Amino acid sequence: MPLSHHDQITLLKDILSNHQTDCCGSVAECEQLERLVKSLLVNPSINNNIRPILEQVYSYSQNGINTQNLDDHILSNQSNLSQWVQDMNSYS
Q: What pTM does this model have?
């Protein structure tokens, strides 16, 4: 059974929150973020205000996949991570 867009956004926020709280993550999590964002961006049911946030998260996930030091990448995006989750909470 596929996830609804609400479930996808919840999962996305959970991964971002974990990155923000734990200050670490995995390439697999970044790949999951990428898949979730791709799926959400093609979904006409999502709030248009979330689209720019999703594009930023997509860039974050791409950079995370390709970085030499993922933990440093996550640390350098701490303020973005919390802001993205707050913004998604206000639109979802």
A: 0.94
The count of domains in the chain is: 1
Sign of CA dihedral 75, 76, 81, 82: positive
- Cβ proximity of 29 and 19 under 8 Å: yes
Q: Is position 73 within any domain?
A: yes
For residues 80 and 33, the answer to whether their CB atoms sit within 8 Å is no
Range of the domain at 44: 26-91
Q: Report CA dihedral (12, 2, 51, 86) to the nearest 10 degrees.
A: -30
Within-domain flag for 13: no
pLDDT in tens, 35-90: 999 999 999 989 999 999 999 999 999 999 999 999 999 999 999 999 999 999 99
